[in-house]
Amino acid sequence: MKQLVVLGGGESGIGTALLGKAKGYNVFVSDKGKIKQKYKEVLIHNEIEWEEEMHTEARILDADLIMKSPGIPEKAPMVKHIRECGIEVVSEIEFASKYTNATIVGITGSNGKTTTASLTHHILKQELEVGLAGNIGDSFAKQVLDSDYKNYVLEISSFQLDDIATFKPNIAIITNITPDHLDRYNYQFENYIASKFRIAMNQTEDDYLIYDADDEVITNWLKANPVKSTLLPFSLTKKVDNGAYLEDKIIKITIDNNQIDMPTSNLALEGKHNVKNAMAASTVAHLLKIRKQTIRESLENFHGVEHRLEPVLKINKVQYINDSKATNVNATYYALESMDRPTVWIVGGEDKGNNYQELFSFVNEKVKAIICLGVNNEKLLENFSSMVDVIVETQFMTEAVKIAYKLAEAGDNVLLSPACASFDLFENYEDRGRQFKDAVRNL
Fold it and tell me: Which residues hold ATP (predicted)?
């Protein structure tokens, strides 16, 4: 019996363990941290062996195949041992994709991938059987085991792409590439770009790569490193023959001389970046022969994802906005760009090698006060102290919201858009966003 070891007992790990067992592997799950109670119960119920708060080296190195959770970095001692022993390591999407013949839409990028994945799924599910997985929702492996949909929309991080070998989406999307997670890529932007482009590495000319043609990082990389896929760019600034572009507030999508038009006047999501997300999602829908009317209606009634520029409440004519999902500078750039009123900005967390320069013009123009919410706020203070009259520090969400309440006047926004990871004070960005919403509701 082949031995499958699953490193990490979270959503992707448990899904892989269940699928692995069903496919005849002897499965062992090992997590250096604690495994959540709900996952333990699944493992016990399915008679899968597991351990927590430790890695039993002998047991792990006896594996024929190892599935590594995306959160575990290459520099972890256990991973180094595994690599030295030459054991094959895969990610969940690589493992699960071997057991499905579904059409796969894979979406990666530094920002916009959750919104684009959710929007694409929202359109496709009107007419197709389709699962939503990857970095979002139930694990891909578990869905392959339980539902085996004919189509999947997968939100895929660079960490998941680092451990693929044969994984190949029929349609790949790269929303954009800006410096992020550089701490995991030896602070080399090139390594991170290369990691994102792995999404297309196994594609053939029968597959499609949809990408932002306005993103120089992407277009320069494609010039130097051509891919085999059929290219479908989208752009807000220039006409494209095949792909999508914007003209007179109308998205025009052309595939093999077949053109459809989508007006943007009634898009449910506002902002330039959301026009791009809509272009990418509609291009997929057009490729998969979804009716034009269905695409248009879906774009008009889709209301976005939690923790992404999510309006929380209006109190005393001040709008509170939860953008906790902005875990890098570029995501916060979009948030500040879309602010049309004076803004009290709550920022900070675990810095991943951030360069705040691209935010300067927006901060000068729109931000009236800054609240730094992190264990170490030195870099934020250095960058922004001279730009605003008020800049304060705190390590508690409730306090941050109370300070914002005092600083904001009628007609202002209070924006939580941290530009950083959440792990210094919170479990994850969802926990941070929920604490923000709770604190606002308790004002």
Answer: 109-115
